[in-house]
Design a protein that fits this description.
Mean pLDDT: 84
Order of helices and strands: HEEEEEEHHEHHHH
Distance between the termini: 36 Å
Structural class: alpha+beta
Low-confidence stretches: none
Largest sheet: 7 strands, mixed
Number of helices: 7
Helix content: 25-40%
Strand content: 25-35%
Radius of gyration: 17 Å
Length: 180
């Protein structure tokens, strides 16, 4: 869907927002400088999770681990629930790889990073992510049998020797490293 949106967009900047994200009020000078340009060619916004049971009953709202972020930070890989990017940078890589049904945003950010274009993670909370937590038993079983986890394997295989992903891989997939 992002590729279709980007192809049909007339402007020079693309602003993507996942369907399960509720944008929060923020000042435009958070992402646009005094020259009316993006402050960075690619940016992602921080989110808080609004968690629901598998029956979509509200459980709680939780902060992600960056809650203590005091400043903007450049990262090699990001999830793109809120993604702001110059259209020319999007076109440089022909957008998202449509073979991925999951983790396509992280794949995209790592491919950008290989082009020496890091992603700026803004310190501000730009959205609320309405979700059923990944640790929910029903969701875990559904993802297991839907083939969603196969995409993670494809992702790891594609980026295993990517120097910008290696430290993230060790942190996130320590069990895989031990098995190998």
């Amino acid at each position: 869907a992002r590729n279709v949106g980007a192809k049909n967009a007339d402007g020079e900047c693309l602003f993507f927002l996942d369907g399960d994200v509720e944008i929060q009020p923020f000042s435009l000078n958070t992402i646009i400088n005094e020259n009316n340009e993006l402050v960075s060619p690619i940016m992602a916004g921080h989110l808080d999770d609004v968690n629901y049971s598998s029956e979509w009953k509200f459980i709680n709202q939780t902060s992600r681990t960056y809650k203590s972020a005091r400043e903007d930070k450049y990262l090699s890989t990001i999830g793109g629930a809120i993604l702001i990017i110059e259209k020319c940078k999007w076109q440089l890589l022909d957008g998202m790889d449509e073979r991925f049904k999951y983790t396509e945003d992280r794949d995209f950010s790592l491919r950008l990073r290989r082009q020496e274009i890091p992603t700026l993670r803004k310190k501000e909370i730009l959205g609320l992510h309405h979700t059923i937590p990944y640790k929910d038993k029903k969701r875990m079983w559904k993802m297991m049998f839907s083939g969603a986890n196969c995409y993670k394997a494809l992702f790891i295989r594609r980026h295993l020797f990517n120097p910008y992903y290696f430290s993230v891989l060790i942190f996130e997939e320590s069990t895989l490293i031990i098995l190998v």
